[in-house]
Amino acid sequence: MTEIRCPLEEAAERHGARPAVVSGARVVSYAEFHQRVAAVAAALQRAGCGTGERVAIFAPNSPDYLVWLLAILRLGAVCCPMNTRLPHRTVAELLRRVDCCWLVVEAREQAGISSLSSDVRILEGRELKEAGAPPLDDAQSCTMPLDRPATIVFTSGSTGTPKAVLHSYGNHYYNALGSNTNLLLAHGDRWLLDLPLYHVGGLGILFRSLLAGSTVVMPDQGEPLDAVLGRYEVTHLSVVVTQLHRLLQQPESVRYPALRYIILGGSPVPLKLLERAAARGLPVFASYGCTEMASQVATTGPGSTTAQRLTSGKLLPHRRLRIGEEGEIQLAGETLFMGYVEGGRLRRPLTDDGWFATGDLGRLDEDGYLTVIGRRDNRFFSGGETIHPEEIERVLTDHDGVQQAVVVPIADEEFGQRCVAFVQPRGSCPDGLSLAEWLGQTLPRYKVPDAFYQWPAAEANAFKVDRARFRRLAVDGPRVPLGE
Questions:
Q1: For residues 219 and 212, what is the distance between their CA atoms, to the nearest angstrom?
Q2: pLDDT at 263 over 70
Q3: Strand partners, 333
Q4: Which of 111-120, 239-248, 291-300 is predicted least confidently?
């Protein structure tokens, strides 16, 4: 198969009156959604945007964002979702790096947005929204070549330098297809889009919902997660560790009867957290994925045993996985990205036989379940011993007083490197000396951090842990000893 019919067009035909997007009090049917996307695609074309050109979006999640994104893809252009937390100067640099010549924003009045780059033409959301919509019957049918470039997602990885990951339409299609096979999704189901659309996990939710004819739920800004789950009768939820922690802080009397699947990913998962979720009856399924594979790679499923649910899951369809030298996870398959965009060229860093080396370390059991040990470039050596920070973090978060922890190395004259820990407390947290004694009951002495610091306030609500920032804090501060 080299091409497919546009999934939105097919969903509009099959599920026309059913809800495609629910946001606040507004419900957008598949028929209306399809018509709006066709209209905006036509408006983009009239503005001069053509096939293969790169169009960035710099805006928060919204139903309009979904329309813009799908219209760009319908036109055959490449969508570049931009991180709205980045400074405008950094955004401008990234746009230049990928030769992006169009930028869609909510309004030109956004502070500093008009000065991003003289080479980028800015399109205001209002201009696209007011474009005349062709009647649905007249909206030209379209097919999607699976090898057509579709999105560029920027990922910092472990280096802190954003990489521009180019996906084909087929990468997103097969990723969604494999996910929907594992955790069943159908019309009538509702998947909460609580991840940013500049993150590949957010894009994955959209594509899964389109293929299944289910509903994307986009809550009002600032609405608490627990309230959203009940108000919209959410059935599927994707979260990172921080979000699950917040969900577990709700009273035990709070229940979510419609919720069938919680997909947990984004970082190594503390075992204690999974146990607490299971005790609360929350249907959590651990997952492993990466931007280069268009989101999920492995996920536990409904038939998994208790022990298997403590792993990162089993390989999903349309992917391949092997453990290479030194235990590195290597990936291939129909979801594997097209390459990194570097100016006018595309770099695809694969092994001689076509596999992508992730930099993640892991192992497979006899049933094919994957356990992720940590990042190869996070590990360091102390007095000749190998230290995996993620191992220490997992043990730390088993402590009842620890919600989250990050372990990083610092230079040491005697041992070369030693580790220190930043700890985010849960309730009453012990001081560093007590935590060191507690860790010593499980870990060898060389894995027990030399110092424990308070979690920085600036990272309290971060979507993803920035290890490079914590490494800088460990050396240059500011840092406050735990318990002070």
A1: 21
A2: yes
A3: 319
A4: 111-120
Mean pLDDT, rounded, for 16-44:
94
Location of structure tokens 């937390």 = 85
Give the model's pLDDT for residue 468. Answer: 85
Pair 140, 119: CB distance under 8 Å: no
Q: Cα(250)–Cα(474) distance, rounded to whole angstroms?
A: 33
The b-or-e profile of 260-271 (16+ CB within 10 A means b, else e) is bbbbbbbbbbbe
Q: Give pLDDT tens digits for 407-442.
A: 999 998 888 899 999 999 887 778 888 999 999 999
Residue 374 Cα to chain centre, angstroms: 17
- Reference 214, options 9, 22, 6, 3; nearest CA is 22
Amino acid at 66: L
Q: How far is 205 from 251, CA to CA, in rounded Å?
A: 28
The CA angle 189-191-196, to the nearest 5 degrees, is 165
Instruction: Answer whether 14's CB lies under 8 Å from 214's CB.
Output: no
DSSP string for residues in 42-71: HHHHHHT--TT-EEEEES-S-HHHHHHHHH
Q: Which residue in 180, 278, 291 sits closest to 236, CA to CA?
A: 180
Element (H, E) at 373: strand 370-375
Sheet strand arrangement including 319-323: 319-323, 328-333, 356-364, 370-375
Strands 215-217 and 190-192: parallel
Whether 153 contacts 167, CB under 8 Å:
yes
159 versus 40: the higher-pLDDT residue is 40
CA–CA dist 178, 298 (Å, integer): 10
pLDDT in tens, 118-161: 678 888 888 787 665 554 444 567 899 999 999 999 986 544 57
| End-to-end CA, the chain | 62
Written as six digits, the tokens of 379 are 């590990």
Write down the H helix ranges in 76-115: 88-97
413: Cβ contacts below 8 Å, ≥ 6 apart: none
Q: Identify the H or E element spanning 347.
A: strand 345-347
145 token code pair: 């070549």
User: Which single residue is written with the structure tokens 């997007």?
Assistant: 21
β strands within 59-209, DSSP E: 78-81, 102-105, 121-124, 143-145, 149-155, 163-168, 190-192
Provide the mean pLDDT of the chain.
89
Q: CA 35 to CA 29: how far, in whole Å?
A: 10
